[in-house]
Amino acid sequence: MAVIEGIHRVALCVQDLERTKKAFEEAFGCDFFDPGVFEPMQVHSVTDVDKGLVLTMPTSYDSPIADNLRRHGQHCMMICFRVSDIEEAKRMCHEKGINILQEIKLGDVERYKDAAELVLDPASFPEWGGNFMLFYGREESG
Predict the structure, then answer these.
(1) Domain covering 4-138: architecture
(2) Would the pTM of this model clear 0.70, i.e. be above it?
């Protein structure tokens, strides 16, 4: 059974968040909301939930995202796949030798209590070019 159902969101790593945000709003009608700065990763991101697009900019020179931006320039930094079963996706990763850097379980994030994510280690899947890949699953309601 295929675990991946489709793409949930794509994140672009950018140098100028406000400029890029304005360009996407004007060119493509994006409607971004601003959840603010995510301190653990030292990034500021804005998201258009309906279009599945995230723009991310580092907030400090020594953040992991700043290093990524210096090495690769502006680029597609991350893709997040929607999966039918997050536990099955986790088993599949273990079977294929793909390391999971972080597991966000149901209820871990206040805003998305019914969602879970697996952040995969880009080094364990070199065919993806060193970019981040995530699996996203939602608990069925009712």
Answers:
(1) Roll (3.10)
(2) yes
